[in-house]
Please model this.
Amino acid sequence: MNENPLEITLIHAETPPQLAACLAVRRAVFTAERGIPAAIEQDEHDCLEAGYDHFLARVGQEEAAALRCHREGGNVVLQRFCVLAAFRRHGVGRAVLAQLERQYAGQADRLVLDAKCEAEGFYTACGYRTVSGVFEEAGVKHVRMEKLL
Model:
């Protein structure tokens, strides 16, 4: 990865190729790297017509991260957030969250997510607070976290 300051672009997927790029990043992280079965990782919400917002983050011209969100009451629920291995520990995740928070500011009360326990410290450092005990999802321990917008 380039050592220059990060130029991160958050793209709201509105076309089939953009959605396909989001799903490819998720497959690389969740299925290939972490071994989550594709049948669990991808579901009926992974289409443009499902009412979910899908985002692709690029660093320069390289795809670096992906996530999806949906509205639940006055909240936006962030799901399937992942950063490709080559872009981790370079501020990409933090920058993507900051852009996402700006995207939804004024449209929702808070962002809510189910964080893998291993990522809880990252989200805490980004201003999220834990609002649940530990629970298991897809065989992985999680906690629910939220941040007021």
